[in-house]
Structure formats: C-alpha cells, structure tokens
Amino acid sequence: MYSAEVLSQLRSLNHLTQEVASLPRESREAVLLLAQIESLRARLPNSILSYHDRLAARGRPSAIKVEGTTCRACHLRLPRGLLGELAVPGRFGVCPNCGVFLWLGEKPAGAAPAKEGA
Ligand SMILES: [Zn+2]
Predict the structure, then answer these.
(1) 15 CA from centroid of ligand 1 (Å)
(2) Which segments of the chain are extended strands (E)?
(3) How many CA atoms, within 13 angstroms, populate the side-chain half-sphere of residue 45?
(4) Cα of 108 to ligand 1 centre, how many Å?
(5) Distance between CA atoms of residues 10 and 5, nearest Å
(6) 117: CA distance to ligand 1 center in Å?
(7) What's the gap in Å between 89 CA and the centre of ligand 1?
(8) Averaged pLDDT score across all residues of the chain
(9) Cα 85 to ligand 1 centre (Å)
(10) Quick check: 95 and 73 in contact, CB under 8 A?
(11) Distance 87 CA to ligand 1 centre (A)
C-alpha cells in the first residue's frame, strides 16, 4: 500500500490538472499551475505517475472520493471489505472494476454504517 502522502499528492495533481484545463493555455495562472504540477510530479513515484497519465489520457481522474458505497468513476458498488479498509484513516484503495484510486470522504456527523439493502 502507498502512503497517505502519495494519495494527497495525487489528489492535488488531479485537482490542478482540472484547474489548468479550464484556463487559457498561455495565461499566467496556467503557467503557475503547470509549475506546481511539475513539482508534484517530481515527488510522485513513477509507478503512480504512469498510472495517473494512463487515466488522464482518457480524460479520467486517477483518484476519486468515495461517497456512499459506490465508485463515482464507474458506479460499481464497492465490496464491503474494501470500504472497511478505506474507513481506516490514512488508507486508500483501488476500485476493483475501473482501477481508480479511492479514498473515503468525511462521514456526515452521526452517520452509522449502513446495514440495510446491500
Ligand atoms: Zn470504479
């Protein structure tokens, strides 16, 4: 498993990549963001970068926050075991269907683990 730091850098990378895509190519903001992207990429392991680039080439994010019990990239209902893993602070996982990195968002206050349905 990778460290939480790698995931947070990957999250930033996804965020900045989206931001930069919405800016005019030659704008000062875009240049600044590209510099930030470069410094983030320099700190990420190559395996993660090539993974990110493969997904980015298809216009997909490489890391996505889980809301509820489904992967928001492919809408697969995630296995209970994986959700349990993700509930551990600092852990993240990979969607067994689409391969995107997943992390769990903050739980709404007072939310209990869902037992019904499944
Ligand atoms: Zn998925």
Answers:
(1) 18
(2) 63-66, 93-94, 101-104
(3) 10
(4) 22
(5) 9
(6) 20
(7) 21
(8) 86
(9) 16
(10) yes
(11) 17
70/73 Cα distance (integer angstroms): 9
Unique residue bearing structure tokens 């990239």: 73
In the chain, where the domains are located: 4-104
Q: In what order do the strands lie in the sheet with 63-66?
A: 63-66, 101-104, 93-94
**Residues 72-77: contacts with CB within 8 Å, 24+ apart?**
73/98, 73/100, 74/98, 74/100
Neighbours of 66 (CB within 10 A): 21
Q: What is the pTM of this model?
A: 0.74
CB 24 within 8 A of CB 58: no
Residue given tokens 């968002």 in the structure block: 105
Q: Two tokens at 54?
A: 């493969």
Ligand 1 centre to CA of 39 (Å) is 28
- CATH code that applies to domain 4-104: 1.10.287.1490
**Over 90: is that where the pLDDT of 91 sits?**
no
Residue 1 pLDDT: 44
The per-residue pLDDT for 90 is 76
Banded model confidence at residue 114, pLDDT cuts 50, 70, 90: low
